[in-house]
Amino acid sequence: MFRNWTNCTILLTAASLLIIAPSPQAGAEEPSFKITMDPIIFEGNYLDQDTDSSRSQEYRDLSDGFRLTQLNLRGLSSDLKRELRFQVLNGGKDDAFYGLTYDVGGAWRLELSYDNIPHRFGNNGLTLWTLKTPGSWEIQDPVQQALQGAIADQAAINRGGINFAFLNGLIQPFLSVANEVDVALQRRRTKARLELGSAAAGDWALEYRHEARNGLRAYGTSFGFNNVTELPEPISYDTTDAILSGTWKWDSGIATVGYRYSKFENEISTLVWDNPWRATDASDGAAYLAPSGSSIGGSSRGFVDLAPDSDASAFFANGRFDLTENSWLQAAVTYGKQKQDDPLLPFTLNTAINTSVGAPFDASDPANQVIGSADRKSTTSRLALDYGLRLDGGWQVGARYSYLDYEDDSERLEFPGYVRYHAVWEDIGRITVPYNWTKETISANVDKDLGDFGTVGLQIRRDTADREFRETEETTEDIIALSWDAHLGPTMLRAKYETGSRDIKGEYLTEAQEATFEEPEGINNQPGLRKFSQAARDIDRWKLSLNFPFADVWGLDVFLQGANYDYTESEFGLTSDEIIRYGFELSRSAGDFGTFFLLAERADRDVSQAGRQSGGSLSTDPRADWFIDLNEINDVYGIGWAREAKNWQADLRAQQVKSDGTADIFSPPGGTPDLGVGFDNYEDYERFSVEGTYDYDITKNVALGVRVLYEDYTIDSFIRQNLRNYLPGALLLFANDGDYEVLSLGVRMSFRL
Known about the structure:
26-stranded antiparallel β-barrel, four-stranded mixed sheet
């Protein structure tokens, strides 16, 4: 909170200095400067919540205490050449925003902003680990030793007894005294932009952006099939961007050139954590199944390389040029480079993986890596052209072309093998793969102005994608679109329909799965399986919207839109995806009654998928097929009313958001899994909220008021069903982001200056 108020003070000070700054026209009579301000609203907040769910404040701050709810200041000089704007929203809170703009017409313009964005993922999770140093989660040695010893004792008696019931009995006493952790992070965005010569022929702009993220988020890790561990990933990284651009204008066009630089810095580049079931390192051929009757081995520690420091730069240029009185050309080009050179970690931290267990060297020694640092780099090129021509008789034609190319310029690295789940050396050579790709779009359109009947249009578009080391080398998607925009009396209508298909040039290469292997390992993906982003498909999309004003102050907006994707050649994978959305909004914008709105919206989506249960080897038995149809209906309802009377102001609104999903599963009898069991709680949730404010003018300049927010949220999801901290093979945080009922009250004081 102190940091937020400090930034607010800095911005206010800067605003004051700018206001009193002399005019750049030395010696001229100083024009007067008039300050206007919306009501300044201070608020004291009280929060009552029935659970510890983080969901109620996932992206906002309703906590107890004071906040500067609103400050909007505007200053304008008498000659209209200088303008100041300053804004504060929720000052002093974790979701505060501060913004300042100062414009000296014809000379320069300055924008400053500071934005706080909370992300709260779950409260009161339980973890056996303690964050000893940034990026290192440790379990007390006696805990690891006790659990390893108990498992070893059971293995000596009967390995078959190392099952969930046994492990659950071991872990529960430690979970009962585990550490509580709130999984959340805070984003802080700073932006500064300076424009010079905004009213002259040439403009220059310098923009600086910085975002810092700090906190925790859930991270899934694993020591093997029976030892999944969910950890809070410590987050502490910064993203900094700087953009310099110049713009030139003339009678027949405008052009901009610039340079962009971006730098990402991660203070915690590696995450290390203790294995709860082992205090010492061990390895055997089945250690990735530990702890179980198959093995009690494995590493005492795991690790993962997090996002590396990186930087990117790009040159860009764009412009619009009038070729003739009736034709124009728009063009944009970008050339960028990205690189990172993070030090490579060792193959493992498991000191038991060495020549004694079949590895070619000590895999825990970073000196045995094939290279010291990653040295990864890539290039991105982009070109966009847009040509338009107006013809007689209300005709207009156009053509567009876009090109986007990604090129991985890194050296290909060969690895003699890898360590599976920190437990076992796999003598399988792997090689890095440069997944290069190019996307092109070319389109042509013709439009006809029909006068009172609006404008109709026809567009033909082809999207082409070329890929390397993927299942398809080239796909093409051809689309035909029809549109109609019209003003039918007071009613505005917009309609569009698109239809087309995507096709694969050549064969779908299932063997692309082996691109990262030095020697073929054998295909275990189904030949009929298709990745939806590359699969052949038929496409239909449509949208219709109507805006109908009536009775001077009323308006009605209605919309209907949908899409249908049919994956015609996909035996397995995504086979169809259909969605339809429709809704309306009725609004009243003036009059003694005040403003009013009523809205309703529904989105109905059906998704079908197919698969074949194959286990560890490729199955050709159709009895092992399974099919799933997912349906999800999302509803939004809202109503609101606001009025400003002579000595009071009121604002009241309510919203109902609901999601209802089902999953129908079918599997032929006699196969595996033999019987498909569906479920009707596919991410079902419901949120009802009512919020209102009322302010009463005590004097001309002071008002007292109240704010009330009531919200009720429930969720019934198969993802959360029967969750707890320890499940077979998984140790989870189980942080609370579920049901809540919340009442937030505020006492407000407003000042008019």
